[in-house]
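Re-running the complex after MR caught last week's input typo. The corrected sequence lines follow. Everything else is unchanged.
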Amino acid sequence: MNEEKTLYVPTMAEMVANGEVPDILFWVGCAGSFDERAQRITHDICKILQHVGIKFAILGTEENCTGDPAKRAGNEFLFQMQAMMNIEVLNGYEVKKIVTGCPHCFNTLKNEYPSLGGNYEVIHHSQLIQQLINEGKLKAEGGESFKGKRITYHDPCYLGRGNEVYEAPRKALEVLDAQLVEMKRCRSNGLCCGAGGAQMFKEPEKGKKDINVERIEEALSTNPQVVAASCPFCMTMLQDGVKGQNKEQEVKVLDIAEITARANGL
Amino acid sequence: MTNKPIYTSSKLQLLCVHNKIFITLALIKTNYAMVSQLLFLVLLLAAIGLFAYNARKIYRNIRLGKALDRSDRPVERWKTMLKVAFGQSKMTKRPIAFLLHLFVYLGFVIINIEMLEIVIDGLAGTHRIFAPLGNLYNVLIWIFEWLAFAVIISCAIFLIRRNIVHVKRFFGVEMTSWPKTDANLILVTEILLMTAFLFMNAADYKIQLHAGEDVHGAFPISSLLTGLLPESPDALHLIERACWWFHIIGVLAFLNYLPYSKHLHILLAFPNTYFSNLNPKGKFANMESVTNEVKAMLDPSFAPPPPSEEPMRFGAKDVQDLTWKSLLDAYTCTECGRCTSVCPANITGKLLSPRKIMMDTRDRLVAVGQNIDKNSSFQDDGKSLLDDHISREEIWACTSCNACTEACPVNIDPLKIIMDLRQYAVMEESQAPSSINAMFGNIENNGAPWKYAQADRANWRE
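Corrected-run output:
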């Protein structure tokens, strides 16, 4: 079971060249493409897709930033330039369905592209995992056991409040038979990790403490073994927070996709 | 010795005046009903007239905002209003405040039925015109009395929370002396109005007992107050009338206080929730004017529609650049601070406070309105919402997490204003923090917010 399966991740261009059409386009996103920590999540999303036999492709070098950070920082020009370019590529490949590894890409593609001419069925990877679990295609067996482990889930703003996706990531955790412990501020009351609204790309304004510290203190107060995330920006902020508290040894910060992949021995 | 009084002319005059007053008093006594009806009518019309005058100004000010179409999906809009404003659905997140506010809210809504009787009695010179409703009337008065009692208790607890226990939510940089006074004035007025209502009933109840007739109305609370009142029927009549007038004048005065107060939410909560943003919170509107320019840039054959007459500005520098909904939001805000108490920036000590954004917007809008009143059209006063009220430090501290919009019990959207101000700073002034400018540069040059080569985007596969 443990033999390393080779990961085959074709680009749209490669698929089309072979005369194939993918079931779904995996929108990797900038963090998922370049950030080392997020790349591991990207790998695991691909492993899950491959494991259940979904035919997928990425855009590769044809993928461009969705424009989300530009838009949230007030640069509507740059956002729409990015959006139009991406829409041209996506429409060129006649893409129908997209799964994203990032709630920010998910929100932008799903909500802000349609009025610019980009109409796709867009889901976040936690929703895909939920769907696969519901269909019985994905279980939690054959890999690392999370049974009885204390896991707390951090709601990303653009998945939770932004699009009211609260249940899908929790469903992925429920099948683990783990002990799900909620923070006081969870679901619609969830506290931001501090990275949204283009904060990821700037120093915070002066204040009493950093937002990610406030959040990780709350997460750690639930005594978790795993802090679960589903956004690469939240991942960075939470990971930094855990490091700052010197809890790296005891507490792991893992994405829903990573947990799912591990539980299935992928 | 004759004691004939010697009248000087001034003494004569005085006597005449005395006589006049005496005669007038006698007339008033005999024609009390008629005079009071007339007085009531004048007061009522004056109060409504003044309120209409101020309401029109507020309406005009809101219409200074930019166009925004919120006429779609009427069924969903009515449902939202019924649920959020009428049904108080978002208040339940804080159970204690919810319960206390519910009493005051129900008091406001239901005791207004009693107001209807008071207004008819005042105009027609009748007394308890709904009394023939019999048992139903008794039930109604019974409910009003309990609600009035609940309102008094709730307002007293609210005063304690604000002034003695110092609930953190009611403090902050924006909570200067006027907002605090405003809140206390509202609460004290409500207590006084309800007290007058109860004493009016108490006096009336005692009069009815003395008269030995069947008692109209049920008085569970005010019957306990009768011991505090004198026995003389004249004094009881005087107290009953005094409380009646105090109550109705108080209500009319309160109505006219609303346009100057945060308490305006009791009216605007309804339209404001009707015109709520019904889209997912994460979805930000795309600027159409930009779309045309971008299309023209990417496709030279694209002919953009002719630009509108007015010089256009990207984003918002002042209140006129905001949408009318943002301005309605500002008038609707009752400064409860639920937004600020959940704002991650504010929690961690940053300057940003969503409640301040709303209060600043209203303050600036009122100033712009006064400017228009004075000059018949807006004359540049060298001030603007951005910088003179809201600082750059505040707008750049926002994480756009939507905690504020989620928390607002009347669906106010401070985030929209923050984003409009950011758009102005970036698109009109190119005044973004330098690291943000660097991020823009990266996206433009290599299609990612970080400095990585586009060609390396799929290298993670290796």
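None of the earlier attempt is carried over here. Chain A has two domains: 12-130, 140-263. The domain at 12-130 of chain A is CATH 3.40.50.1860 (Rossmann fold).
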